[in-house]
UniProtKB/TrEMBL annotation:
It comes from the Eukaryota. Keywords: Disulfide bond, Hydrolase, Protease, Signal, Thiol protease. This is Uncharacterized protein. Residues 125-279 form the Peptidase C1A papain C-terminal domain. One of its GO terms (biological process) is proteolysis. Residues 37-92 form the Cathepsin propeptide inhibitor domain. GO terms for molecular function: cysteine-type peptidase activity.
Length: 299
């Protein structure tokens, strides 16, 4: 019985990871669209009462037609009917891209670490880098919506790394990448993954499937992600490899490739505005707990 439950759970996860597809004929009538919505709900295990289902069907129809219309265009990226397909753009922004990230460097004073940008004098970087291949990136997580993990630093006074059994990893601080400078960002990513904030609130980002994202987006930073590499397509389009936190079913297995090297200094979706990385300059681990004020400074 236990084996059966394990296999059943595996099949559910496999189905979700394989994504959801449709045929153009399913868009030809209200009836076929309604059946498509039912199939989508079964695929994602979404339950709705009759009143809510009618409301959500109208949203779903709008999003499906947007996906179909966009994919007919000659864009470098594609959209799909993912798990966000029956929520409005406004709901998506509020729930998944509503962090309203402030410019950390303006609020928190001087950076910690070596006192500057350690990669400033780097003169050459590889053509492409993928930190996933080097074992430096953990599995993609699904954070759900922004209220799923309501972290409050006031609830935790100290970082008690010394109380953890086995090996622990600590950092000495962090540094900021010079803002509005994708070349500086490239130097940093060539040496390690880099945390960034982006504007992830567009409809196309909501329904992104694959390819290099060149869609419209602003610089209202509202979502935290990590750049784990960069590269260039066969046709010469440069991109960042970005690790998201909306599960493996979104995008390219939980990742998005965002266009790199655009004319605007802030980068596509503001990716060059708020970038930072951890520093480890010592080989010893301090056993003193980190005070609460220090925790706030690091956040």
């Amino acid at each position: 019985m236990k084996l059966v439950l394990i296999l059943f759970s595996f099949l559910i996860l496999l189905q979700a990871s394989q994504g959801f597809d449709y045929h153009e004929k399913e868009l030809e009538s209200e009836e076929s669209l309604s059946k498509l919505y039912e199939r989508w709900r079964n695929h994602h295990s979404v339950t709705r009462d009759s009143h809510e289902a009618l409301k959500r069907f109208n949203v779903f129809r709008h999003n499906v037609l947007h996906v179909h219309k966009t994919n007919k265009k000659n864009k470098l990226y594609k959209l799909k009917i993912n798990r966000f397909a029956d929520i409005t753009h406004h709901e998506f922004r509020n729930s998944y891209a509503g962090s309203n990230v402030k410019h950390h460097r303006m609020l928190c004073g001087p950076k910690r670490g070596s006192g500057g940008f350690m990669y400033e004098n780097v003169t050459g970087v590889p053509i492409s880098v993928d930190w996933r291949e080097k074992g430096a990136v953990t599995d993609v997580k699904n954070q759900q919506d922004c209220e799923t993990y309501p972290y409050n630093p006031d609830d935790f006074g100290f970082c008690r790394a010394k109380n953890v059994e086995g090996e622990t990893v600590t950092i000495d601080g962090h540094e900021h990448v010079p803002e509005n400078d994708e070349e500086a960002l490239l130097k940093a990513v060539a040496h390690q993954p880099v945390s960034v904030a982006i504007d992830a609130g567009s409809s196309d980002f909501q329904l992104y499937s694959e390819g290099v994202f060149t869609g419209e987006c602003g610089t209202q930073l509202n979502h935290g992600v990590a750049i784990v590499g960069y590269g260039e397509t066969e046709k010469g389009t440069k991109y960042w490899i970005v690790r998201n936190s909306w599960g493996r079913e979104w995008g390219e297995g939980g990742y998005v490739r965002i266009e790199r090297g655009i004319s605007e200094n802030e980068g596509r979706c503001g990716i060059a505005l708020e970038a930072s990385y951890p520093t480890k300059l010592t080989t010893t681990t301090t056993h003193e707990p980190v005070a609460r004020d220090d925790v706030k400074d690091e956040l």
